[in-house]
């Protein structure tokens, strides 16, 4: 598979990002997550009583990452809709499961939830690295706490300080960053499963039972 679909590409990405963060924002991660969400939806609908077989679900699972991006691009030219383009391509790979892909759902089910998953995974990549940086900088600050250096104020030399004290100022910023990112991760909430156009009408038509729609 071409790396064009495996990495998020930008000057910032190619120069500064880790391979794991590049993959996290890649097309392959995005659209394979769409497929995983369709599998989760089918499994939940099966559990709640819709006529979905395990064979159909297994077929979907066999093709999570072998995405034909060229075919999806051609489909999107015809449908003018990114989600339906990928539904059609996935359906051609999974003919048995074709009728149950994206069954009853709105586009935001895959689009918005995937964005939230990517954000969550990105924060979980970043926070341990930030913690490691804080730990190393704390060691550096303690090691050089008695080494004098010239302080600055208003862009000009001022009274003496220490290298360790200066490093502690950097640490304070990083600790505030860590707290903000941790709070963002803790507060992250995912969308429920909504029907077409954001209502539950399509799921009511499928299940005929409001309690099952709520459970979904």
Automatic annotation (TrEMBL):
Task: Provide the alphabetized UniProt keywords.
Answer: Coiled coil, Lyase
Q: Which InterPro entries match?
A: Fumarase/histidase_N (IPR024083), Fumarate_lyase_N (IPR022761), L-Aspartase-like (IPR008948)
What domain of life is recorded for the organism?
Eukaryota
What is one process in the GO biological process aspect for this record? 'de novo' AMP biosynthetic process
Gene Ontology cellular-component terms for this entry are: cytosol
The record's annotation in SUPFAM superfamilies points to:
L-aspartase-like
Q: Which Pfam families does the entry mention?
A: Lyase_1
- Coiled-coil annotation: which residues? 50-77
Molecular-function annotations in GO? (S)-2-(5-amino-1-(5-phospho-D-ribosyl)imidazole-4-carboxamido) succinate lyase (fumarate-forming) activity; N6-(1,2-dicarboxyethyl)AMP AMP-lyase (fumarate-forming) activity
Q: Fumarate lyase N-terminal domain: from which residue to which, for each copy?
A: 93-200
- Transmembrane helix among the record's keywords? no
* Name of the molecule in the record: Fumarate lyase N-terminal domain-containing protein
Give the originating organism. Answer: Clastoptera arizonana (Arizona spittle bug)
């Amino acid at each position: 598979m071409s790396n064009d679909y495996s990495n998020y590409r930008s000057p910032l990405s190619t120069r500064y990002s880790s391979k794991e963060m590049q993959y996290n924002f890649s097309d392959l991660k995005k659209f394979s997550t769409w497929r995983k969400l369709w599998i989760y939806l089918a499994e939940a609908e099966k559990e709640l009583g819709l006529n979905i077989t395990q064979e159909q679900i297994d077929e979907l699972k066999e093709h999570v990452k072998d995405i034909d991006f060229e075919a999806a691009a051609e489909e999107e030219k015809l449908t003018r809709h990114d989600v339906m383009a990928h539904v059609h391509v996935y359906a051609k790979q999974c003919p048995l499961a074709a009728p149950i892909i994206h069954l009853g759902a709105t586009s935001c089910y895959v689009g918005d939830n995937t964005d939230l998953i990517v954000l969550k995974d990105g924060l979980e990549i970043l926070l341990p690295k930030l913690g490691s940086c804080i730990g190393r900088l704390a060691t550096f600050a303690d090691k050089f706490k008695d080494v004098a250096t010239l302080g600055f104020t208003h862009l000009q030399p001022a009274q003496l300080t220490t290298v360790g004290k200066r490093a502690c100022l950097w640490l304070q910023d990083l600790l505030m960053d860590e707290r903000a990112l941790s709070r963002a991760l803790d507060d992250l909430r995912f969308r429920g499963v909504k029907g077409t156009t954001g209502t539950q009408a399509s799921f009511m038509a499928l299940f005929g039972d409001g309690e099952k729609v709520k459970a979904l």
